[in-house]
Amino acid sequence: MSLIILHGSRLPVVRIARIAGQYAKPRSKPTEVVELPVKGGKEGETEKKEVLSFRGDNVNGYEPDDRAADPDRLLGAYFHSTATLNYIRTLLSSGFANLDNPVDWSFSHVRSPELQSAFGNVIESLQDSLEFMKVASGGSISGGGGERGGMETVEVYTSHEALLLEYEEALTRSWGAPQAAPRSQPDTPILSRSASRIRDSSTSSYPHSPVRRARSPKLSESFHGMSMSASDLREVEVDGGKKWYNTSAHFIWIGDRTRQLDGAHVEYFRGIANPIGIKVGPTMEAEEIVRILDIVNPDRVPGKVTLIGRYGAAKVDQFLPGHIDAVKKTDHPVVWQCDAMHGNTKSSVTDPALKTRHFVDVITEITRSMEIHKEKGTILGGVHLELTGELNEDGFSVTECIGGSMELEDKDLSFNYRTHCDPRLNYEQSLDVAFLLADYLKSKRRGEKPHDILLASLRGRKGEAKQ
Fold it and tell me: Per the domain annotation, does 8 fall within a domain?
């Protein structure tokens, strides 16, 4: 995907994988109603029961009888995150992303002849560029010489929503100048207001993230609501270049359900030096965006904050322009990103128990976001997608989202529906998005109009988003 986008845009692409840590799932309700077999009943007889909601593999199990929270799952999440990172490192170090390796571009899944031709033209141009680079460099794009160059490997960063603060706390580290002399009381600060008391430094070897003095009465009141005295709220100064980093990922974000200004997540995020994201949706007031930016990035550090819009295809025109205007009135330097997945989740018509997303809605939100940013004089700096290259035993991609160049239909979802959480774009649909972005950015670079055939074909015969 990044190679296709890079070729079209002629701009560097930062690859951030939502991986190695996304094992927690925010839920709107603590419980849900499911159908379970009747114990001692007839075969096929079911009854509805209320069970605890599935909150992700690092909290509880997906099966209804495995919904009790288990702290040992946090250790399991750490193990799987580490194993995943090691696997990624092994892939990259073994030449997985080396441009000298031949790439098999197959478009047998593309139903539309016009779309097949458009994709083929892009790949032909890309391969011509790679062949030219090989000839110009003496037969190898990586250039040899024993050192790994920019053409031999790529940089991949990791990210996830920092939902479980207990997990993030254990992986928060300080970096920089030595700490000042210890005070009369233990200097281990509380992580968040989710703790009932300040942890004694003798009970844990983990350093904890700093909690700075509240900037508004609301923040102080939220602490006092937990019976904490003012003396408990000790400030850990970031002196002599010392900073605190969340080491569970390079980039973490605040979700749409946990961005309360006086909440624990915002308090934690303003104490770390990582680049961070903030999910922005229809329920977020423009004034709230400015206030949260003031809290988490008071020094206006460029690149520190990414605003991740997740409006949905039907609401992006209604809310995104106002949010852009609100930020433009401030001096906050932000990166705008489009999450075209989470505002477009629907229930399957064939099987309402299955969640799905329509590809037409995904690309409509992306293209409308790009157009709105162009009108406002701002730049859409990235897209936030949920995707997978997972295949089943027979080599077929997952079937969780409807549409795309392979024209999956609602009745096809059950063929290879694998997700335990949200529906993901499969390998072919992900490439569709990459081609669309590359076409748009290439046209923008050349001052041309994007090719209607690509957008119209991917949107479907009617070329309209389904509301």
Answer: no
